[in-house]
């Protein structure tokens, strides 16, 4: 108690700030890895450090020698094993800047036209039960995914979107990538979701939508060919069977920064819809 009292007496404002920053950094790190395999690996690393401390205290020299020599090459192994998580963390830091801006800010009429064109296309595809997957690039670049498809660099129009996803056409199975105000590519291949807790009735198209949003801050819009339901994925979570007004809010949140939190906050608190 005397030690704690002395510590609190000598505590300065800069120490509080220092502790607060470190605590916030650890919290953010935990939020990034909490639903990935890195969480289990982190538990294993902590266990090794505990064993190492006990071996050193109890003078178990053989165990200490093994652990010490293992940890010397452990850092390189960690970089290899945690590569996806490290990339995700660095991308998160890159997105969370004081001077960030919305890539979709621009002319009001152009925003409204794009929203109308996308809504028309999505509703037409849903009514005909034609599967579709549209990815909206945000701050994290998707150049590596764009390169897997056919480059287009076309203006957004409902006719073009509908034709891309018509069954038995060359590009209908892949994803469309929309960057800023243009369709950058179609027929793109996406990484599948890593989560093991997804519902068994979620198909490949929905898993791909979750997968790309696990690795970036993009927003994925999906039309189910089995049910005609419209869904979307964001931050590795799937929000299923949204209605027309919710689709309008989603597209508005993409193209109009001030209203971005509306639909995400509403769906976060809804029961029975969120998956993943």
Quick tags:
276 residues; disordered C terminus; alpha+beta; C-di-AMP_synthase; Diadenylate cyclase; single chain; 14% strand; 2 domains
Describe, in plain words, how this protein is organized in 3D.
This protein has 276 residues and is an alpha+beta fold. Strands 2-4-3-1-5-6-7-8 form an eight-stranded mixed beta sheet, with helices on both faces. β3 (175-179) and β4 form a beta hairpin. 53% of the residues lie in helices and 14% in strands. The chain folds into two domains: 2-95, no CATH class; 108-275, YojJ-like (1, CATH 3.40.1700.10.
Oligomer state equals single chain
Strand content: 5-15%
Low-confidence stretches: 97-103, 258-262, 267-276
**Total individual domains:** 2
What would CATH call the homologous superfamily of the largest domain? DNA integrity scanning protein, DisA, N-terminal domain
The counted number of beta strands is 8
What is the structure about, briefly put?
With 276 residues, the protein is an alpha+beta fold. The protein contains 11 helices and 8 strands.
What secondary-structure arrangement, pairings included, does this model have?
Elements: H1 2-9, H2 13-33, H3 38-57, H4 61-81, H5 83-95, H6 108-127, E1 132-136, H7 143-146, E2 150-155, H8 158-165, E3 175-179, E4 182-188, H9 204-214, E5 219-223, E6 230-234, E7 237-239, H10 244-255, H11 261-268, E8 274-275
Parallel strand pairs: 1-3
Antiparallel strand pairs: 1-5, 2-4, 3-4, 5-6, 6-7, 7-8
Helix pairs in contact: 3-4, 6-8, 6-10, 10-11
